[in-house]
Amino acid sequence: MLLWLAEYLQQYSSLFAVFQYLTLRGILGVLTALAISLILGPWMIRKLNYLQIGQSVRDDGPESHLSKSGTPTMGGTLILAAIFVSALLWSDLSNRYVWVVLVVTAIFGAVGWVDDYRKVVEANSRGLPARWKYFWQSVAGLGAAVFLYTSAISPAETQLIVPFFKNVALDMGLFYIVLTYFVIVGSSNAVNLTDGLDGLAIMPTVMVGGALGLLAYVVGNSQFASYLHIPYIAGAGELIVFCAALAGAGLGFLWFNTYPAQVFMGDVGALALGAALGVMAVIVRHEIVFFIMGGVFVMETVSVILQVGSFKLTGRRIFRMAPLHHHFELKGWPEPRVIVRFWIITVMLVLFGLATLKLR
């Protein structure tokens, strides 16, 4: 929005041309979202407390979690508000990729909001029935996949890029839609499963989102893309502003969500942020690298799948409790230790994922 204003004002002063630079708008995106989160955070926490929108805690989980009962939840609304305001202010709103990410994030956020509202406000333990939750997730995921496939301008936009190999790109055809659907929906639910400890999900989300912003910048720049032997995706660089806004909003939220948390993000934040990461990974054509960088999300999801599968088939559990972070808690790890160690793992995985740009 402000980019259009800057373009208009260039006729009066060339100084406004500086807003054409993606790097500057990315920095402004981070700072804007961070400021919004920090300023509105205390007010939102007070409002949630006043409305008695508090988290309910499972009585079969770690005993240390019982004290968290009543902690305000649905704080993901703050994250989404900061992201949307910042992205709409500093992004090029004529870019189709920006709108795809914004729409997908909004729909998944709405699904999560309804689920949270029914659980917390209406005291319905089921929340939004699973079939309806996955239905609307599928509608958004498939809608984004079909749009990206039909609006693709170059073959590179629908090819599967294999890391570690130069110029290896597999034509997927209609399978692109299937892959995109699973990446978006799978990522959304993986982040949601990870969101079980104070700050556990938001910091990996910030780190992976920041890395995806860097990937968007290089794939959207023809010179960098050629040098790194990766496909050039025209317009993808504009996503750096959204990624920056996500990082700023996430860090601002972490100010209040760090242990011991003053507020939880709830499904409204976790489902939306996971979907946003997934759709950005698809657009920049680095799904496999995203799978590596989001290894913590993958481990959490796999632990639940293995736990449920093992119990149904053999009647025995593999882990003391799933998702995986609860297993380590029940082994005696203090909650902050679990959180920080998962953060450290994410740092290493993100660096390894970024290293694939040169290891080809």
> Given the C-alpha coordinates, what overall shape results?
globular
Number of helices: 14
Count of discrete structural domains: 1
Strand residues, percent: under 5%
Rounded mean pLDDT score = 91
The CA-CA distance between the termini, in Å, is 39 Å
Strand order of the largest sheet: 1-2
User: Helical content, roughly?
Assistant: 55-70%
Number of strands: 2
Order of helices and strands: HHHHHEEHHHHHHHHH
User: Could you tell me the radius of gyration in angstroms?
Assistant: 20 Å
Helical/strand content category: mainly alpha
The main pleated sheet reads as: 2 strands, antiparallel
In the predicted model, the low-confidence regions spanning at least 5 consecutive residues are: none
Quick structural summary:
By secondary structure, the chain is mainly α. The chain has 14 helices and two strands. 65% of the residues lie in helices and 2% in strands.
What brief labels describe this structure?
two-stranded antiparallel ribbon; about 65% helix; globular; mainly alpha; 2 strands
Give a description of the structure:
- The structure is a single chain.
- The chain has one domain (2-56, 67-355).
- The protein has 14 helices and two strands, in the order H-H-H-H-H-E-E-H-H-H-H-H-H-H-H-H.
- It has helices spanning 2-9, 22-50, 76-90, 96-120, 130-150, 175-194, 202-219, 222-228, 239-257, 266-283, 287-293, 295-314, 324-330, 335-355, and strands spanning 159-161, 169-171.
- The longest helix has 29 residues, at 22-50.
- The chain is globular and about 60 Å long.
